[in-house]
Amino acid sequence: MAAWPAVGFDGTITACCNQDVVDHRPVPGHLRLGHAGTDDWGTVRERCLESGVLRALRTYGPLWLAGAPPERGYCETCRTLDVPPPARTPATAFVERRVLDLQLAGGGTGFARRYGCPPYDDLVSLGHPERDHDL
Q: How far apart are the C-alpha atoms of 129 and 117, rounded to whole Å?
């Protein structure tokens, strides 16, 4: 995920809304975006969009980035990640853009299918389920 800034109980802003990240201190450095008391929205947004690790997490996911075996778990791998971001090249910028385009094309239903509970992905749609799908 690494794209949903969340404000914790103490004002710490994280790049992930996973409760283990939001509630526990210290927040892993690659997931900390700032603090509500000292950082404005523009600063937080820039950190979220420009962080090489966060861009790589959104594009490739933590398992690929860490080279971790799948049994370790997606979120646990991300929380304990300690690797430098891949270099930003024209090729990685192209892949990032293409992945973002595919995610946006999926709309709300695609998002729910990927990150939520696929059997209920149609519940995020507006309108009648048999028509007007993904308004």
A: 17
